[in-house]
Design a protein that fits this description.
alpha/beta, Ribulose 1,5 Bisphosphate Carboxylase/Oxygenase, Rossmann fold, 4-stranded parallel beta sheet, 4-stranded antiparallel beta sheet
């Protein structure tokens, strides 16, 4: 059962009103508290990549792992970083550089033939962080893939039955943020056994603000 748009809009306005004006544009986070969901059970460990209707304010940094023509096209398309097979080989065994790479970039895209090398050099670092690359065909339109990944968010359950991600910033239009929230809730509701009944509460919160509850 999708939430009423009005309820989301009301919470967005409250979250903005409850936040003091800062010298920077504050992010707005969506926090979903679950109930009757045991995060220790494998089937309940939610990890979802969701493409939002609108970018969530802060631009995602995209690292593309590719060779030849795809690497050139990725650079032209504005990828934050492009690395090739030789770079992967140089990363093997260098835990510090691997961690820096994982920390710096939000999402990774890899040319499918390079995935075995990605697994060997970066799998142990990216896997636990939920950042393993999206494999794509060498003939795919890499520009479209980069744009898609700029609108992705990762929702990942860790030790507690809580899901949290950025859905926009305080300067974003309320209607656009509402659509982002709706896209996330619809996806998560579909992943839960009892749907919305597995959701205890939903809040929106600006970086330096007080949480505003969305009426369920």
């Amino acid at each position: 059962m999708p939430l009423k748009k009005k309820n989301i809009l009301d919470a967005i306005k409250k979250a903005k009103d409850k936040s003091k004006k800062r010298k920077f544009s504050q992010s707005v986070e969506l926090v979903i508290n679950l109930q009757d969901v045991d995060p220790k059970k494998q089937e309940n460990r939610i990890q979802e990549l969701i493409e939002l209707p609108y970018p969530a304010g802060k631009e995602n940094k995209i690292c593309v792992i590719a060779s030849g023509e795809m690497a050139l096209k990725a650079k032209k398309a504005g990828a934050s970083m492009v690395i090739g097979r030789s770079d992967l080989e140089s990363l093997m065994g260098d835990k510090k550089r691997q961690k820096e790479l994982a920390k710096t970039y939000d999402f990774f895209i890899a040319e499918a033939p390079l995935m075995p090398f990605v697994g060997k050099s970066l799998g142990a670092t990216l896997g636990p962080r939920g950042k393993m690359p999206t494999p794509v065909s060498p003939t795919v339109n890499i520009g479209d893939q980069i744009e898609k990944h700029r609108k992705l968010v990762l929702l990942r359950m860790r030790g507690q039955p809580v899901l949290q991600c950025r859905v926009g910033n305080e300067n974003m239009a309320d209607n656009e943020m509402t659509e982002n929230v709706q896209a996330i809730l619809e996806r998560i509701e579909g992943r839960l056994k009892r749907g919305i009944k597995n959701i205890r509460s939903i809040h929106l919160k600006a970086t330096m603000g007080t949480p505003a509850k969305i009426a369920i």
